[in-house]
Specification:
Blueprint: H1 8-13, H2 34-40, H3 46-50, H4 53-66, E1 72-73, H5 80-84, E2 89-92, E3 96-99, H6 106-110, H7 122-135, E4 141-146, H8 148-157, H9 165-173, H10 175-199, E5 203-208, H11 216-232, E6 237-238, E7 241-242, E8 245-249, H12 256-260, E9 266-268, H13 275-282, E10 287-292, H14 301-315, E11 321-325, H15 335-348
Parallel strand pairs: 1-4, 4-5, 5-8, 8-9, 9-10, 10-11
Antiparallel strand pairs: 2-3, 6-7
Helix pairs in contact: 2-4, 4-7, 7-10, 8-10, 9-10, 10-11, 13-14, 14-15
């Protein structure tokens, strides 16, 4: 593989010296880009698009062709594992993901199998290999998966939810059944992420979208403990380099110390807690990623400038910060605002990295 030309993202995750703060954006390949919307029309549905490596590769590369980002993230979806388990994933306009065969009982869990990453999920690994070939060492490539708790939430609820009645009902009524499902998902996610690393992913990220809906004790028992198991069993080195792992739980401001104890290299932080507080609490145990409110990108350039400066000021001098949004970019964001954001981050952050 070609020598990595820009490794600031990887170095920041390992808290090594860099010359400016690296930036990438959650969902940076997506509907806010007109070129993505045009590409999406080549398939009848989103799932077919994800399962076509040539199209997923092109979608991954599109934001890199437009912006000087410091990392790429493979275009895929967190629900690939439940889909490969046979739950009948489909997407409906305006409603998001749905499952034809949601989990409702222990007998449903018993029917599940651990997907083969090179067979059932081989299209993701093919996309990663293809993207690496096209990147030619320009920037690192991030692989990812949903956390066991978040995957279980979608599988049991049958799609998105506001109250989480089905999964929480199982958690309080049949905790052993839920633990059985989470154990199966933990093994599946571990195998899947290690396959992504073997295929060329240079960092990996766990998206725990719904961990924040739990109490502290339940978060530890039903989400964090399983993510820690995954982190412990990941391939830590590939192609002669460390493969860092980022853990992101939306709404996790209360639990940063617990998250840092998992051994992850980076912690994703949403916009509800200042980075200064997060840095003080985490110390040198992990890098921080975040944490601009995605809606800032709907504002004026002046406001974007001010908010970027505020985030950088909050983290302060030194390495260990990857600039990102506190959640995924909104489809209504003007692409020119993203260009301005990246320009401002690269410009304003240099002073924080001078000895």
């Amino acid at each position: 593989m070609p020598v990595l030309q820009n490794d600031r993202f990887l170095r920041a995750l390992l808290r090594q010296e860099i010359d400016y703060t690296p930036v990438w954006i959650m969902r940076q390949a997506g509907r806010y880009l007109p070129e993505y919307r045009a590409l999406r029309k080549k398939t009848p549905d989103f799932l077919t698009f994800c399962k076509t490596p040539e199209l997923a590769c092109e979608a991954t590369l599109q934001p890199l062709q437009r912006y000087p980002l410091d990392a790429a993230i493979v275009f895929s979806d967190i629900l690939t594992i439940p889909d490969a388990m046979g739950l009948g994933l489909y997407f409906t306009e305006g409603e998001g993901p749905r499952f034809k065969n949601p989990i409702r009982s222990i007998s449903d869990i018993a029917k599940l199998h651990i997907p083969d990453p090179m067979d059932d999920l081989g299209y993701v690994c093919q996309t990663i290999t293809m993207v690496r070939q096209h990147l030619q060492g320009k920037v690192p490539l991030i692989g990812f998966a949903g956390s066991p708790w978040t995957l279980a939430t979608y599988m049991i609820e049958g799609g998105s939810s506001k109250q989480f009645e089905n999964i929480k009902g199982m958690m309080y009524r049949e905790p052993n059944s839920l633990h059985q499902l989470l154990t199966l998902l933990t093994e599946s996610v571990t195998i899947y992420l290690n396959a992504q690393i073997a295929s060329g992913a240079q960092a990996v990220m766990l998206f725990d979208t719904w961990g924040g809906v739990l109490t502290t004790d339940d978060y530890r028992d039903f989400s964090l403990n399983y993510m820690e198991q995954i982190i412990n069993d990941l391939t830590w080195e590939h192609e002669g380099r460390r493969v860092p792992v980022i853990l992101f739980t939306k709404g996790s401001g209360l639990w940063l110390e617990m998250i840092a104890e998992t051994g992850c290299d980076g912690i994703g932080v949403d916009w509800t807690i200042p980075l200064s507080q997060a840095r003080e609490r985490v110390g040198h145990k992990a890098a921080l990623q975040g944490n601009l409110d995605p809606c800032v990108l709907l504002g004026s350039k002046q406001r974007i400038y001010e908010e970027v400066q505020s985030v950088l000021n909050s983290y302060g001098p030194g390495s260990g910060h990857i600039f990102n949004l506190g959640h995924g970019i909104l489809p209504s964001v003007p692409p020119e605002n993203v260009a301005y954001l990246i320009e401002v981050v690269h410009e304003l952050s240099q002073v924080y990295h001078r000895a």
